[in-house]
Amino acid sequence: MIGLLWFTWAFAWIAVPVYMTEKQKWGTLMFSLIMAWPGETNWSFFFMTAFALAFMVWVKYSMGQRWSGDIAPVSGRITDGPFRFFEHPIYFGASVAIGCTALAGNVAAWFVLPVAVVALRVKATFEERALDNDTRFMRTL
Fold it and tell me: End-to-end CA distance of the chain, in Å?
């Protein structure tokens, strides 16, 4: 059942009207295939995963043309929409979704979770450095 959520998310993620390379589209589909590994359905974690995946789609949609798979700054710091609550809301949503999928009984998610959390943290650090090094986007205190 949770696998259906991940496939739905993959298609919604690709459908959001933002440019994605073919490599990014295939990567999204392959990742959802890994996360669709069969497991028991724990309804609490199912709904938490659904919320986290929907949250990620909302973040990407709210970013519009500012979304990019690259680390280079596109348009500076974003402080509206979901960015009012988190500096990196897509990474937060991804971590919650993968964690809830693991807790719901998905064996593959237990292997993906630590790798994803570390990779997203590293990417967030590079994004912050890129923004801090570009004087157009420096934080205001």
Answer: 46
Give the span between the Cα atoms of 37 and 32, in whole angstroms.
9
H-only helix segments in 1-141 = 2-15, 22-35, 43-63, 89-103, 107-133
Look up residue 6 and give its two tokens. 């991940």
Q: Which tokens in the block code for residue 81?
A: 């929409």
Q: 47 vs 1, 34, 106, CA distance in Å? A: 11, 19, 15
23, with CB counted inside 10 A (0-12, 13-18, 19+), is: exposed
Going by C-alpha positions, the residue among 31, 47, 141, 20 that lies closest to residue 103 is: 47
**In Å, how far are 97, 125, 140, 141 from 9, measured between CA atoms?**
11, 26, 35, 37
pLDDT tens per residue across span 88-130: 898 999 999 999 888 887 788 888 899 989 998 998 888 888 7
